Amino acid sequence: MEAAIPLGLALPRSSTNICCFSVLLKSSPKLNLGCFGRVPGKLAFPPPRAVSEDRADATPQWQLDFLGAGVGSPDPPEEDEEDDELLPAEANDWCVRARRSALRSIEARGLAPSLQRMVSTPKKKKNKKKIAKKKDLKKAAAELKRRKKQLDAAAEGEEDEDEEEDDDDDVVDDLRDMDDLELRVAQFADGMFDEKRQRNREAFVQTLSRFSSAPSNRSREVSLNRSIVQVQTADEVLALAAEVIDEVAKGLSPSPLTPLNIATALHRIAKNMEAVSMMQTHRLAFARQRDMSMLVGMAMVALPECSPQGISNIAWALSKIGGDLLYLSEMDRIADVAITKVQEFNAQNVANVAGAFASMRQSAPGLFSALAQRAAQILQTFKEQELAQFLWGCASLNECPHPLLDALDAAFQNDARFQCHVSDVTSSMHQEMDRPLNFSRDQIGNIAWSYAVIGQLDRPFFLHIWKTLSQFEEQRVSDQYREDMMFASQVYLANQSLKLEYPNLGLCVRSDLEEKITRAGKSKRFNQKTTSSFQKEVGRLLYSTGHEWVREYAIDGYTVDAVLVDEKLAFEIDGPTHFSRNLGTPLGHTAFKRRYITASGWKLVSLSLQEWDELQGEFEQLEYLRRILDRG
């Protein structure tokens, strides 16, 4: 007997319903579709016998899917095998009963395989490579998170053992979704705006550094060092270092990022920047990259294990990359470590470290005292350039290297051994104390300016240096070249200081040379003065004090911001560049200018930006100006 299906049956228009009825109609052309009437509100086909629980358990999955009783569906209602009447719940599920009736008809005609192929969902082939990659990523993420929690707990002195681990999938998603902008903001200005991010970065750096404790792989270290040296740009060096950092973070051990390679990477980045004369804004943007911040952090961790040359290279590199705007805490760290190893420094290390701190306006009295003592001990190994650079560094930070000055006076007593050349001469003192000293013109200028700044123009060594200026008789000093201007300005200030502070020495240069130097030193070709908003604001209020001020008044080689000519009162407005950035002490050129103006017979009143910022409102600022002028 043919199975009867009502024409008026309103089944949902799902793909399963359409498939089952399509198979049924194709398999039974003579299907009696008119034997059922349509009774409103009631289904008009005989109810099928319910399937027992044991039978439901043995039903194939594709049939359960067809009947709508797959995974997650409620269990089929139990029914008494002897009772043909359906339970109330199943009687209301007319769709399931219709599907069962259709299924029995299809099975009776041997078309079950066709329906199975229609109903069964083809299984997707799993990508084994993606699965393996995801597992590795989960494992690495879980390991990094575990180590991070241990480090954080150790740093805070407590560890919560009851803290539950997050799901590995969540860790992977968090790592992938981490906002790059958030990282950049967190690392801006050395992490000042996000202390938590900074602590996490330091903890991660500490984690990376632990991998280097394993036995070293010498061949890999040498290969990495060679690769760092061979690349031609700062970006390539950083990319190479970042790649190795990622490998170490994933568990590469032993790490090829030895203290030597870290110092070499920073040194090559700075050297490549210098080679292309990279603008300061580009250097600062480069320094704030995440990978660069990580590399500098690793360098700070590795400092105690660095050689003196490595410490010198790192200090020099940071001064070229960040200038006087970045790496304040890092330079303090370098100073602390350098003091512990200063007895191992050679002349080049001493000169480079002093030059780096000076160019960054980073005061370090303890370090410079130790460097001066070390320089005096190894004086015979200094080259002329190294000596000039170290003296310039000390003078720039207003640090007087008394031990070195005493050693120079004792070692070089014969002025016949001093010579001067226009260009640099590559030579050294290496225990050749009887040979002439070949100073270049620029070195002479730096040494003369340094002795003037630190107020030691009556030293015997300086007297010998000053007399070598007579060799410039045949040389032209022009205002067309920056080098000539720098030399002329330095020598001019030293000459004026000799006149004002040491007139008894009678060491002024010849009149013809003095004329050339004075003319070139006063030229404004390469010395354009800029007025800051701070100076403009103070200058405007100065006129409100009731005095007749003269702006931009020249006193010999210096220009003073404002003066009262009749009262010989000079007023100086000193911005941040006049002070060390960490201690706020006056730099060498500021202290020398103040001393020079005072020696010229003027009363000097100075106002710093820090003092000005502490004042609230224009009225308070004006009252402060009146008070300091009265004291002056």
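[next item in queue]
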Amino acid sequence: MAAQEIESGTSWGKELWDQFDNLATHTQKGIDFFERFGNFIRDRSAIEVEYALKLRRLVKNYQPKKSKEDEENEFSSLIAFKNVLKEVADLAGQREVVAENLQNQVLQNIMLLSKILREERKKALNQGAGLTQSLHTQIGTLDRAKRSYEKAFREAEKAIESYHKADADFHLSRADVEKQRVNMNIRNSQSEDAKSEYANQLQITNKQQQQHYQIALPEVFNKLQELDEKRTRGMKEFIKRAADVEYEVSPIIARCLEGMVKAADSINEKDDSMIVIEKYQSGFQPPGDIPFEDLSKSDPDASNNSQTHNSSTGLNHMTGKGTTKDKLKKRVGIFGIFTGNKNNLSTDGLKEDFSDLPPTQRRKKLTAKVQELQQKVAQEQAASDGLMKMKGVYEANSMLGDPRTVEEQLNESVNRLDRLRHELGRYQKLLEQANNQTFIQHSPQSNRVTQNGQRSSRHSNGSSNHENSHEDNGEDHPDDAGSLSSSSASPESGLGTSHTSLPGSGQGSTNEQPMNEEYYEAETPLGTCRALYPFDATSEGSIPMSEGEELQVIEVDQGDGWTRVRRFSSKGWEEGFVPTSYIECTLYA
């Protein structure tokens, strides 16, 4: 029947008569692909078994503990949750049924058909190889017969030429001429025999070749076509069968889901509230008003007894069964404020806002973070849009899938998108603040802030005067950078460099003169540091240094990436800021 269908339709034997090797490769790849589909069914079945096992473990882990008191007064939410667990256990059972049917009804048949196809292919290829070898043998015989005929023909022509030369030569005897004539006749006879053999072998070869390419080999190719189509039909049938396995359990799964909805509808918050009242109601009456006692008109002993009685009665009401005493909590002192600040510093220690980096590096990091979050938001938005489209397709055609399976993924995607947008907004705000600060921060000193929000300098009386003016006026200055730049203690006035004002001068001096060494003796350095790289001061408040130079540490890094140091030069002592990453510090114990 299959052979007749092949003959009536497109035939490999007719259309692909010279593609033996390619057909052998194609059928091998087809069977390999078919077995790979079987491996897919096997792995899917294993996943179904594992899923069912995890569902049962989930039900077991979340099964509420049974107690006599809970059984008497069970909340409707607890009862509903137990029913949900039962439905989930039933779902696990259906997944086990799916796994079992996939193994018994699909996987086993795939393996059996694959074995049959391999055997049929091997048999057909062996038959085709035998036919091809037989034809090649006959062609070899024909080639040998042709070469023999060619050799005999050349020798016959040579013998004829020799005879004509001898016959024309009058110096040869008749015996010699006769000898050449006999040799000529023998060679002609051998040539004719070789010619006949060559013609016979040619006829046999043509007949066998015609039989090979028109009948024998097409039959082999048709067998290969038949087994390949059988593989394709099997693929079609087994895919349908795998879908049927899902269809068979879908009604039961639908009933399980309906049971979950029914369990949810059974929850009644009012009934649960009544259960709480019944479970924890003490039965005592609230204490009444405490009466006023006039000690001038009553007996002191009686009043004391009455007060003692009222106090004990009140305490009894407050400590009745079903109530708890309020525990005294320690009041958090003023040091709790500093504890909170320390916690904030620990948050900065996580470097989430890159506040420990220099301004430029921080802006780069924040920009990269914003771009990364924007890309994540775009990807998540695309994924969310795809889920929405998939849900719409499922709702339009339920045969393609259940839209409820996409609902949970869609909700998770929306939540992730909200979190990403919130985080993106936070980092965009940090980036905007960092960009705004670039127009304010003219030197590393502008990053130094005290705990009360005022900028300060260790060596400038002008700074303290500036702070006092803030306290006297009682005004808030949220933007300290602007006021600082205009004050006498600002970095631009020379604070921290050779222009630093001397103590007691009130204002920073603009004359270039060495700082008083006695003044520095009053402040002990915190340690020493060595320059790892050369640094050129590009802004006021910073000082240059050369590689390997030893400097004194006056103030450690406050989280802005700059360290305050002191160096001795030809002009005297100089003080300013250098990048923390450019130095190696050794602090005193």
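[queue empty]
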